Amino acid sequence: MNTNQSSTDQSNTNPSQSRYERGLEKLREIDGKAGENVVAALADIAPDFARYLIEFPFGDIYSRPNLDLRSREIAVVAALTAMGNATPQLKVHIHAALNVGVTRTEVVETIMQMAVYAGFPAALNGLMAAKDVFAQPANA
């Protein structure tokens, strides 16, 4: 491990904020209303899971200072494409990627790259998800 930086470095976070507050702030920054809709959809079936969804991925991981949101969303689009079974989440993260400055061309190239590692069916499904997202109005 690099001695200049610990694996738990959270220097870019506000220690007075709770994980939930920090996560909700990051979720809004990345996903806007789309992210809040996902959380709201869980309220009647699994409110604790909705809280975990805010605290861990967004409050702990996305809030880390060592990778910018653009890079994080490119990685998430690649991972969800490679999984091949997470189309609804992939669409949310394609929106998020566009929201944090990833271009449509970069989204397409990221998904195409996954054909090498995850196969053509996964990349094709990812491209169809991107096509659906790109066809929606920008503020959807």
Overall description:
With 140 residues, the protein is mostly helical. The chain folds into two domains: 19-61, no CATH class; 69-135, AhpD-like (Up-down Bundle). Helix content is 69%, strand content 0%. The protein has seven helices and no strands. It has helices spanning 19-31, 33-42, 47-61, 69-83, 87-99, 104-118, 120-135. 25% of the residues are buried. The model is unreliable at 1-12 (pLDDT under 50). Residues 1-20 are annotated as: Disordered. InterPro entries: 4CMD/NDH-1_regulator (IPR052512), AhpD-like (IPR029032), CMD-like (IPR003779). Residues 1-18 have a biased composition (Polar residues). This is Carboxymuconolactone decarboxylase family protein.
DSSP E strands, number: 0
Kindly, what is the distance between the CA atoms of the first and last residues, rounded to a whole number of angstroms? 42 Å
Tell me the β content.
Answer: under 5%
Helix content: 55-70%
CATH architecture group name of the largest domain: Up-down Bundle
Provide the gyration radius in Å: 16 Å
Structural class: mainly alpha
- Helix count from the secondary structure assignment: 7
Oligomer: single chain
Whole-number average pLDDT?
89
Total number of distinct structural domains: 2
State the CATH topology of the largest domain: AhpD-like
Fourth-tier CATH superfamily name of the largest domain: AhpD-like
- Sketch the major β-sheet: none
CATH class of the largest domain: Mainly Alpha
Element order: H for helix, E for strand: HHHHHHH
The low-pLDDT segments are 1-12
Biased composition (Polar residues): 1-18
Region (Disordered): 1-20
Organism: Pigmentiphaga aceris
Protein name: Carboxymuconolactone decarboxylase family protein
